[in-house]
Amino acid sequence: MLNLAGFDRISLKPGQTKTVSFTAGPKQPAIWNRQMKPVIAPSSIDLFIGPDARHLENVTLEVDP
Asked: 31 with 39: CB under 8 angstroms?
């Protein structure tokens, strides 16, 4: 399943670098159980970064509640 949880455009000039940060709260990796309550289950979250949708690099975070 693919969900866009957040997006921010940052423009950099050639050779320029910038440190960025974000906060992921408990709602991002939560799923709904049979009792219709949000729970956090073991899962993987892929983060993507790149200049456009065709040129992305990613890192995978493992969620182990």
From this structure: yes
30: its two tokens: 């939560």
3-class DSSP state for residue 24?
A: coil
Pairwise CA distance, residues 17 & 9, whole Å: 14
Instruction: Give the distance from CA 55 to its chain's centroid.
Output: 17
Residue-wise pLDDT for 5-61, tens only, equals 667 788 889 899 988 887 776 666 778 889 998 888 787 888 888 888 889 999 888
Gap between the Cα atoms of 24 and 7, Å rounded: 12
Q: How far from each other are the two terminal CA atoms of the chain, in whole angstroms? A: 19
CA neighbor of 63 nearest in space, from 48, 45, 47: 45
